[in-house]
Amino acid sequence: MADEDQPEAGEVLFCGMTDWKQIGRGKTDDEDTFPNILEPTRIATLKGVSIAKVCGGSAAAHCMAIAADGRVFTWGRNETGQLGLGDVDNRAAPTEVKALAGIKVVDGSCGKSHTVVVTADGNAYAWGSNKHGQLGVGSIARTKPKEDDNRLVPVQCSVSACVAVACGAEFTMWICGDDGRLLSAGLPQYGQLGHGTDGEYNMATSSVKLAYEAQPQPLPIAALAGRKITKVASGHNHTIAVDDQGKFHTWGFGGYGRLGHKVQKDEWTPKMVEIQGGDRNLCPPDCVVSAGQTTSWVTAVQGQMYCFGRLKTTGDNTMYPVPFMDLQGWRLRSVACGATTYAACGEDQTITWGQGAGCGELGYGPKGSKSSANPKLVESLGGKHVIQVACGVGHTLFLIKPSDAEGLPEWEPPADAPPAAAPGGKKRTSAAPKKGAPAVKKGKKK
After folding, report:
1. Running DSSP on this structure, what letter comes out for residue 421?
2. What residues contact 25, with CB distance under 8 A and at least 6 apart?
3. Secondary structure (3-state) at 342
4. Each residue of 182-222: pLDDT tens digit?
């Protein structure tokens, strides 16, 4: 969010899978070139770069880091141009988005195949897949009837006075203006845009072939008119928004109880969620909000974290907000959700949990477990000040106080990634991988 106060800056740590082509699809077939990073590790190419924010998304297989000076670095999967680098080649190493040179970026979010950022002067830029209009540029460009609209470099969104953004898998939310208007664009399936419809229609005349009408123009959500939205978070197919009165609202896909309304029902317009205690237990201005594939998280007064949805891959669903006792008493700075993993930081401890893919995204180290049903401390970060966490598919990012990064392992990713697969499985003939395995260097202990 664009604030007058300068955000605390730090250094990026990474853990998880580095074969971006395979993340969420299977194991790597080249562990020498693309090792799994099993504990929070410094990225050599970002050492010395003061980072203000790390960005992820529950459906994202790519990463973004925003520097204190407003520069943007992206890396990961790039099959639809979601890295904004002018091509569709995956990147192992963080790479500056040169098309944004001279523009100070202050906030951002990653969708499944798209990325959106907000600038200090209130503009927003987006890149990647615009198949459903999720870039919010007002139109969908197709040179051929069945060809997707992929924008390989940043394009300006049709919004103004923007202060924050959140990406779902295939839709986007923007908070704009002094009055905190919330606008949305993209795929309306499940009612996740909040405009009272799921946009469903039948494409065939003689049979049933359902589709969903894309919305490329960002539109204000009428049901929130008169409410100043201060925080927003989106999961795969649902959204949480907090207003300046401390109330919070959810809408979109209602499966597993992730909307907190006690029923598994899709909501096509925002609906206020009741927390235990009613009006006496509201969300403070500095509340922490996060949304995952099947879950929702929000802090109320005194910092108590409430959660609802499918919190574990097995077990009962939580149909309404309940206190998450494992975080009782923590002064949380940040909570993030991947597809089935979670991370949180507060005080001088960082914890992760969830059902990982076994590629190190929980950061427990070579001898640690690959998954954890309950929150567990990341031992290598004990006693260290982690400013913010961000999650995606198969990976976790940590923004740590620079002095606390000293002594942690370091990884130098290859400068170039293998060519992305073209339609039909053929490889593109652009950048080839560097020969030799990238080394994970152990830092010196203090």
Report:
1. B
2. none
3. strand
4. 999 999 999 999 999 999 888 766 667 788 999 999 999 99
Alpha-carbon Rg for the chain in angstroms: 21
- Whether 189 is covered by a domain: the verdict is yes
Q: How far is CA 290 from CA 5, 78, 136, 223, 293, in A?
A: 22, 25, 22, 21, 11
Q: How many domains does the chain have?
A: 1
CATH of the domain at 110: 2.130.10.30
Let me know if residue 132 belongs to a domain. yes
Domain encompassing residue 121 = 49-226
Residue spans of beta strands (DSSP E) within 378-418:
386-392, 395-400, 410-411
Please give the span between the terminal C-alpha atoms of the chain, in angstroms, as a whole number: 35
Residues 288 and 335 sit within 8 Å (Cβ to Cβ): yes
The answer to whether residue 347 sits within a structural domain is no
Four-residue CA torsion sign, 360, 364, 366, 369: negative
Distance CA 77, CA 349 (A): 30
Q: Contact 57/110 with Cβ under 8 angstroms?
A: yes
In a domain, residue 130? The reply is yes
Q: Is the pLDDT of residue 385 over 70?
A: yes
- Compute φ and ψ for 404, nearest 5 degrees: -80, -10
217 burial (CB, 10 Å; 0-12 / 13-18 / 19+) is middle
| Sequence-distant (≥ 6) Cβ neighbours of residue 281 within 8 angstroms | 275, 300, 301, 304
**pTM for the structure as a whole:** 0.91
Name beta bridge partners: 65: 54, 73
